[in-house]
Design brief:
It is built from 24 helices and 24 strands. With 682 residues, it is α/β, with parallel strands linked by helices. The protein is globular, with a radius of gyration of 32 Å.
């Protein structure tokens, strides 16, 4: 059995979302404050019940309806208080699991391939709640302010006193409608426990290089693992005798017991040949022998010198700690003899903390090896937990198949449609990239996108907007251009995709799918249609563009027609998208009205700063002087830049080093100004 999908309603930003899960691992990505953590915390509230609900767990957009409930319920007797719901759907094997899930089968005479259970946190008795609330308000009448219902519910555990969990068996009808059937609370709680075991490796692991009580030291983790999962010494007297005789004997005992775990941890790639080895030493007083207290040490092979735990890097400790926790959770699940949950999910939050890039790239495959090894060593090779990983690491994401990625996208609240704040993105939706996978695979675009994202370690899925650029020169200079012309963009999370004009339009499908605003900064790339589409100066009257992005966006090829386009917004897309390309640039030193038309970034930069280039204040690697005519300078710049030997990278680095305050190309500034308005609005 496995959890195939779950639905969350009215939980924080997640007003109504569906999350599909993979059999092995599912990865949650998205920009900050998009609901990734909330999608995991819900399980602590509904399943493990290790946390209690608070009023702030309701969407902020629903708080006004809670506050209005006392007054509106007088006119509408059927009015209900908002409730938070979690629906869980599991695949089942009718030949093996039917008997164990009978409580959740709508009919014993029909055949089912899945079962569903709903857990709802809702008001127990709204009338009683209102009565107590109004009595409290009367007592407060002498105060300067009156508490709203939401404020009352936020105080002194009032919410838990009036709201509780209810359980329902779910039946999917032929029409697709989901019908709920109430379950007794104890029956529902038992049914859920039988279906699912949930464990968490939280982001706040408190791994540090200090050996104090506030740190989750690896020694403690090994000690806990020993206490719960390994064979203990037989009795107190034996432990006392062992310690009293020779503490080394107990160390050997640990050595044997931890050998499998250390072998599994080695699959993480640590310790390597260049790292010190792990060793578990006895660190016991006789009276504590059975507590499994252990001390982790690092062993220097050459000197056999024992170094304390704090003498190794945080990344190494974080990685080992995660491995121990996963082993502990899985072994504990598999070792359950009676009423073991039919499935297990282990949530791993932000595993990239302290890990360098190379380890992040292999993290998921290494952890999967550990899970398989534990299952095999425990005698249940087919019983493996599903892993659900939340991350901000593009390195981890690089190794994940698109079908395993769930993207959290910020959207406006459905509860604020008639509000002046209706455009504020205070809610989120969850996008399944497996859906994108199906459509784009047919179009032949997926293979290209997958390879590109892996090659570039793209951080696209963690950004507020994307800027698609031509090449290295733009990548080097764009941060400085943003700093000079649109500094407010520096406070947003913008990803740069170096894709070139020929491929920019291929990314728009993906950006459109995840709903991300896009600015394409591309080159005019003028060519001569009468000379086998060879490069030509952009001012040539017959010039056309060879840039696929421009042709796709505007359905025009002729350069003069592209210059005449009124709006550079890309139409027929569901996302805001703008394409910037070179415009004719006035060059006043040759008389009023004279313009030079660039075909590339370098030409545009030179023409925009032509006076400084001619005077030598800017090194542009073009042979031009003040004595040359308009046509001579125009042709010389064009010929120099189009030459395959032109030093583009040196050109960019020279501008970064230059003390002259150069002007950014105007076509780029126009695009950045547009993007700033879009991002700031979001």
């Amino acid at each position: 059995m496995q959890l195939t999908r779950y639905y969350l309603k009215n939980f924080r930003r997640l007003e109504d979302v569906e999350v599909q899960l993979n059999d092995t691992e599912t990865v949650f990505v998205g920009p900050n404050n998009s609901g990734k953590t909330s999608a995991t915390v819900a399980f602590k509230l509904f399943v493990t019940q290790s946390k209690s609900f608070e009023i702030h767990d309701f969407p902020a957009a629903l708080i006004p309806s809670i506050d209005d409930f006392p007054e509106k319920s007088k006119d509408d007797q059927d009015l209900e208080l908002p409730k938070i719901e979690l629906d869980l759907w599991f695949s089942i094997d009718p030949d093996i699991e039917y008997g164990r899930v009978a409580t959740l089968l709508p009919s014993l005479s029909a055949s089912y391939s899945e079962v569903g259970i709903r857990v709802s946190n809702s008001a127990d008795n709204p009338e009683k709640l209102l009565q107590i609330y109004e009595e409290t308000i009367k007592q407060d009448s002498k105060s300067l302010s009156t508490r709203t219902l939401s404020e009352y519910l936020s105080e002194e555990r009032h919410l838990t006193a009036h709201f509780s969990k209810k359980y329902y068996m779910l039946e999917k009808l032929a029409s697709g409608y989901i019908e709920e059937h109430s379950l007794d609370k104890d029956e529902g709680r038992s049914a859920l426990a039988l279906l699912l075991q949930v464990d968490f490796v939280d982001a706040q692991r408190n791994i540090s290089d200090k050996e104090d009580g506030k740190s989750n030291r690896l020694s403690s983790a090994f000690s806990d693992f020993y206490a719960f999962n390994l064979e203990q010494v037989e009795n107190d007297s034996e432990a006392t005798a062992v310690i009293a005789t020779n503490n080394d004997n107990l160390t050997k005992h640990y050595e044997g017991q931890f050998s499998d775990l250390l072998s599994i941890i080695s699959k993480l790639g640590f310790p390597s040949d260049n790292d010190r080895k792990l060793k578990i030493l006895s660190d016991l007083h006789p009276e504590n022998a059975l507590k499994g207290n252990t001390a982790l040490r690092y062993i220097d092979d050459e000197t056999d010198h024992h170094l304390p735990e704090a003498y190794n890097g945080l990344g190494f400790k974080n990685l080992v700690y995660i491995a121990i926790q996963i082993c502990h959770f899985q072994k504990k699940w598999l070792a359950t003899k009676e009423k073991r949950s039919l499935s297990q999910i282990i949530f791993i939050e932000e595993p990239e903390v302290h890990l360098h890039a190379q380890v992040q790239q292999t993290f998921i495959s290494r952890v999967r090896e550990i899970v398989k090894a534990i299952a095999k060593n425990s005698g249940y090779p087919s019983l493996q937990p599903q892993l659900l990983i939340t991350t901000h690491s593009s390195h981890i994401l690089d190794t994940v198949d698109f079908t395993h990625v769930r993207y959290f996208r910020r959207i406006p609240s459905k509860y604020l449609q008639s509000s002046p704040l209706k455009d504020r993105k205070v809610a989120s939706e969850v996008l399944d990239l497996a859906t994108f996978n199906e459509t784009e695979n047919k179009a032949g675009n997926l293979k290209f996108l997958s390879k590109y994202l892996r090659l570039t370690h793209c951080d696209l899925f963690f950004s507020d907007a994307a800027i698609l650029i031509e090449g290295t020169v733009e990548r080097l200079l764009l941060p400085e251009i943003i700093n000079r012309s649109c500094p407010k963009l520096e406070t947003s999370y913008i990803t740069l995709l170096e894709v070139g004009g020929a491929y920019a339009h291929r990314f728009l499908k993906l950006l459109e799918f995840i709903g991300m605003p896009a600015l394409i900064i591309t080159d005019l790339d003028s060519v001569d249609p009468d000379k086998n589409r060879s490069k030509c100066i952009a001012s040539y009257e017959k010039a056309i563009t060879s840039n696929a992005a421009l042709i796709e966006a505007f359905k025009k090829k002729k350069v003069s027609e592209l210059h005449a386009v009124e709006s550079r917004m890309i139409k027929d897309l569901t996302i805001p998208a703008y394409i910037s390309f070179q415009n004719p640039i006035p060059v006043g030193q040759y008389g009023e009205g004279n313009e030079m038309s660039p075909r590339t970034f370098e030409e545009a930069f030179i023409y925009e700063n032509l006076g400084a280039v001619l005077s030598g204040d800017i090194e542009a690697f073009v042979a031009v002087t003040n004595e040359m005519s308009f046509d001579e300078v125009n042709l010389a710049v064009y010929e120099a830049v189009k030459n395959k030997n032109y030093k583009k990278v040196e050109f960019a680095l020279s501008q970064l080093e230059s003390e002259h305050l150069w002007e950014p190309p105007s076509y780029i500034v126009e695009g950045l100004n547009w993007l700033e308005t879009v991002v700031r609005k979001d």
